[in-house]
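Weekly puzzle thread! Below is a chain. First person to post its structure in token form gets bragging rights.
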Amino acid sequence: MCHSTLDWEPKETNFLIGVNGSGKSSILQAIVLGLGGQARHVGRYSKLEDFVKKDCTKAEIKITLSNEGEEAYRQDYYGDSITFKRTIFASASANQNSIMGSDNKPRKLTKEETKNILEAFRIFIDNPLVILHQDTAKEFLNVEKPEKLYQLFMKGTMLDEITKFYGEAEANVEKTRQREAGKESEISKLERKIEQIKRDMAEYESIRNKRKELDLIQKQIAWRFVMELSGQLDELKKVSRALELALKNDCSTLTEEHRANRVLLDNIKEAKEKLATENEKNGKERRSV
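Winning reply:
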């Protein structure tokens, strides 16, 4: 670009005039680049850094759009004006983009938001009927082939964009149909899987009910066994008490017999002693005779 510093606040501008090389095209290029355009939208250079003025390290572009009236874009968010700021560095292809509202506070800027703003303001930077660059105008005036004029007509009326849009839409529709067919196949598989799960659940429920019945039967069997053992235990207790009573009676009888035998033994011992004494006495008498 040929301008070191240029501040321009147009009001009702119809024409921008000047001698050759004064920078008329540079202003138009700055508008396109400042609104997010690429080098291909300008057509003069292939790289953004080539637009930086010679012997300068960067180019800074600020474009403020009025955002007033009934057709204002997100006025509650941006206010009465929207300012695009773009910095292009000469040393690299990198550049910085930002956007501000009427309060001059930076806001997040995305390609989608830039596109939405330009569409709201009816600014189509790549349409030759909206912005006609000098090189494109020369090409338009010097064109001889009808095919080339037709291409310019398609681009100017945006029919090429519409054709491209419909082509992309048809491709998306075809992809959607393919995905739909794939989803229908997946749905069929899932339905079969669901039916199998239902059958498995029914079988599981049947097994669970049978297990409940089995648990109940096992508990009944165990309780019956307990009852039978309880009856046997009662019988054993009766027998045990009877045996204890009989044993007690036998012990009493044995005690009486033991006492009688003891008396008898004592009498026998006493008789033996008397007999021994008598025999000893009789022996002495025989010896004396």
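Puzzle host: Confirmed. Bonus trivia for everyone else. Residues 159-288 form the longest helix (130 residues).
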